[in-house]
Amino acid sequence: MTNDHAGGAPLPFVDERADGPGVSRIDPLDPAASFYQLLAKLRAPLAMRDMMIAPVRACYRGEGVTIDPAELPKSAAELYPQIAVSTLAIPSDAGPIRCQCFAPPPGKTLRPMMLYVHGGGFVVGRSEDTAYITTRIAAENDVIVVSVNYRLAPEWPFPAALDDCMAVLRWMREKGHEIGGDTARIVAAGDSSGGNLAAVLPIRASDEGAPLQAALLFCPITDFHYERFASFERLAPSGLVIDMAFMGYVRGAYLMKGEDWRAPYASPIFADLKDYPPTLIITGTADPLIDDNRAFAQKLREAGRQATHVVAEAMPHGFYFFPGVLKESEAAYAAIAKFLPSALAAK
After folding, report:
1. pLDDT tens across 150-192, in order?
2. What InterPro entries is this protein classified in (predicted)?
């Protein structure tokens, strides 16, 4: 798919836009404008949130870090050369959404599809970061995975990222056959903050009359009241992968209004889950979100829904990210291979 409009010039992908409502601007008519203008000369960037996000994004991209290639695990392309990776530019009201499509070799029938949402605390990340996960799932489960690059906070707070994911889901429903997908068999999946968005998608999709068939959630955030969970209070203060300081920042960056913490489209644990699809949740016991995930699985069961929670002993947030590093990740992918066929066969 191309990314051109009628004038011929390419439009920016939505995740490249930095003109969102979360950007601080100085109004020259503001009575305090002169004060803000002086601050802008004394420090850069002006807004505190911008001061914090710039180094986070630089570190997340590994800027300034060097590593011997021999120390790196094999890439997804090396491990699964049969999976074709292409770029989609999916239209939306906010502009084209860049997605990566991970597809097994063409077959005689349409394949199930998975909408995958990368993590990164709503503020960092891209589909390339989760290529091993999406490639492996496509290869081992014969599904077409569409991995979405949504708008990031704080420039684009709630519900921009969810709106982007829904635009991609609608496209998959309407035109997924163009990439060889079965538009009636779609799974929502994601990790961490992407797991939050993937956990919300079945609720919003059901509200729009197009329910999803299953949900695959890697250590999702399902409740933004983190501190009420004992595992978060115990593990987050000095967490190595995610910690309390970062989680507090991303909550404020993504949800700019405290009232949104309980909104079902933000914290799905507060939603009516009576129509939720079969769900697989994967978490490690060293993850600060383990109690959150346990609570969500229990809420699903209380609503009469099918919820399987795979718990990996002593494993941290994101333990399934790299091939050959932790044997416990193999059990996670085996659980996925067991879960998807039955979930996709259910009517």
Report:
1. 999 999 999 999 999 999 999 999 999 999 999 999 999 999 9
2. AB_hydrolase_3, AB_hydrolase_fold, GDXG_lipolytic_enzyme
What b-and-e string marks burial along 12-46, b requiring 16 or more CB atoms within 10 Å of the CB?
ebbbebeebebeeeeeeeeeeeeebeeeeeeeeeb
Active site residue 317: yes
Residue 137 in this model has a pLDDT that exceeds 70: yes
Distances (CA, A) of 186 to 46, 83, 144, 199, 273: 43, 19, 9, 14, 18
Q: How confident is the model at residue 279 (pLDDT cuts 50, 70, 90)?
A: very high
Residue 53 DSSP SS3: helix
pLDDT of res. 63: 87
- 321: how many CB neighbours lie within 10 A of its CB? 18
Catalytic-labelled residue, pool 129, 182, 223, 287: 287
Please write the tens of the pLDDT for every residue from 2-49: 455 555 668 899 999 989 999 989 999 999 999 999 999 998 888 888
Q: DSSP letters along 290-304, please? A: HHHHHHHHHHHHHTT
Which of 92, 127, 192, 193 is flagged as catalytic? 192
E strands of the chain, at which residues?
Answer: 84-90, 97-103, 111-117, 144-148, 181-191, 214-218, 279-284, 307-312
> Is there a catalytic annotation at residue 287?
yes
Residue 2 has a pLDDT of 47
Ordered by where they begin, the domains of the chain are: 35-66 (no CATH), 82-345 (3.40.50.1820)
